[in-house]
């Protein structure tokens, strides 16, 4: 056995100033050719699927949210309370209890219940006379905000506020933002805590069909969620369910504009929407890296990872690990589920809702935007945290 610190590893710096969204796929591929493991600035980077799944599923690893927060001096206040209580940072019996109680609210059937609302929002945002738009501002940003507002039972007029809070609270996972924007992230956590408390107070007085009502009514053998657990789970939905879907939908339209034959195929056969969503999730994951910390010594492939070692599982490389993995093809048969939503006990709670939102959007848009094309280079965000699209100008012809 060799201790990981004794290995001579290639370096992949995911925070390097010269690492651009346009270059990072190629640079990752070059590093992956040298082996399954690389050295990063705060962690080791795991570059293949089997090893990635091993660390994501291992009971000897956990999400290092608290440890990363402490590196940046976050040890108290609402942001720390959110990080400390986040279901991502729970392990063992506590984590299993929370997943058991809230699981019914996040099933595929629960997500499907919101599809008519998703279609209504898409129709509201769509301009039938348009043949061009800046897609992020026109659709990708407001659509998931409206959906999450409906799911939570919040006023739809609050959707822009929800997006703003989600954007900032989500940056707790972005090491560059933690370095530069910590006061703004903490202020957003303050504001959203107050907002969620008010929402919950209103919903207790009149339960409905929304997620808040489901959380307040969640019960298993007499066990119920505490008030603090309800608040923090709603914060998880807010911080994890808006920016992520916005980014993935914007990348989807960018990819299809770059692959017009695939867009035409989807328009001809809307039944491919589910496959199209899976291919977008596989090809361009908006969470390229998922961190885990070894809570005890871990051994894998003859390498010892001491307790306290942080690894970053690279979904981008894992997802493309096949002979045709670098091809974007919605009709291709793929082996295995992409690691975009993680794996194991911490598999993303909101994955079913996100998939439903993306399916409805692609089904709605494909027949309405023939000859889809880029109208200038997209403006892409950094790959730390959520890999998003800042601006995406598109053109199409009238159906």
TrEMBL record:
Q: What domain of life is recorded for the organism?
A: Bacteria
Signal peptide from the UniProt entry = none
Q: PROSITE patterns under this entry?
A: CYTOCHROME_P450
Name residues in a coiled coil. none
InterPro entries found in the cross-reference section: Cyt_P450 (IPR001128), Cyt_P450_B (IPR002397), Cyt_P450_CS (IPR017972), Cyt_P450_sf (IPR036396)
> Mind telling me which Gene3D superfamilies this protein's record contains?
Cytochrome P450
Q: Which SUPFAM superfamilies match?
A: Cytochrome P450
Which keywords does the record carry?
Heme, Iron, Metal-binding, Monooxygenase, Oxidoreductase
Family statement: Belongs to the cytochrome P450 family.
Which protein is depicted?
Cytochrome P450
Native organism is Actinomadura alba
- Organism lineage string: Bacteria, Bacillati, Actinomycetota, Actinomycetes, Streptosporangiales
């Amino acid at each position: 056995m060799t201790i990981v610190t004794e290995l001579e590893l290639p370096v992949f710096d995911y925070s390097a100033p010269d690492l651009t969204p346009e270059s990072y796929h190629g640079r990752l591929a070059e590093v992956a050719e040298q082996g399954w493991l690389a050295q990063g600035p705060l962690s080791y980077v795991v570059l293949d699927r089997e090893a990635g799944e091993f660390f994501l599923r291992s009971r000897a690893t956990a999400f290092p949210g608290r440890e990363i927060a402490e590196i940046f001096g976050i040890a108290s206040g609402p942001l720390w309370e959110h990080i400390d209580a986040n279901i991502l940072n729970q392990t063992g019996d506590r984590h299993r209890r929370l997943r058991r109680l809230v699981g019914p609210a996040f099933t595929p059937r629960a997500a499907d219940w919101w599809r008519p609302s998703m279609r209504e929002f898409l129709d509201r945002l769509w301009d039938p006379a348009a043949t061009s738009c800046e897609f992020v501002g026109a659709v990708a940003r407001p659509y998931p905000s409206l959906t999450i507002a409906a799911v939570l039972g919040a006023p739809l007029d609050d959707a822009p506020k929800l997006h703003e809070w989600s954007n900032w609270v989500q940056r707790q996972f972005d090491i560059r933002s933690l370095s530069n924007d910590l006061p703004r992230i903490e202020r957003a956590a303050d504001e959203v805590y107050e907002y969620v408390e008010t929402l919950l107070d209103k919903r207790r007085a009149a339960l409905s069909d929304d997620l808040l009502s489901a959380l307040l009514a969640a019960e298993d053998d007499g066990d119920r969620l505490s008030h603090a657990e309800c608040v923090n789970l709603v914060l998880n939905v807010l911080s994890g369910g808006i920016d992520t879907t916005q980014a993935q939908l914007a990348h989807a339209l960018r990819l299809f504009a770059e692959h017009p034959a695939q867009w035409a195929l989807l328009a001809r056969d809307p039944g491919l929407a589910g496959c199209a969503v899976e291919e977008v999730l596989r090809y361009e994951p908006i969470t390229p890296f998922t961190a885990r910390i070894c809570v005890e010594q871990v051994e894998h492939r003859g390498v010892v990872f001491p307790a306290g070692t942080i690894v970053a599982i690279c979904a981008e490389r894992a997802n493309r690990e096949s002979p045709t993995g670098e091809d974007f093809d919605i009709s291709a048969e793929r082996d295995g589920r992409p690691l975009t939503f993680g794996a194991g006990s911490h598999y993303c709670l909101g994955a079913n809702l996100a998939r439903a939102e993306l399916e409805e959007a692609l089904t709605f848009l494909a027949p309405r935007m023939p000859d889809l094309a880029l109208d200038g280079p997209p403006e892409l965000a950094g790959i730390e945290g959520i890999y998003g699209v800042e601006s995406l100008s598109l053109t199409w012809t009238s159906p």
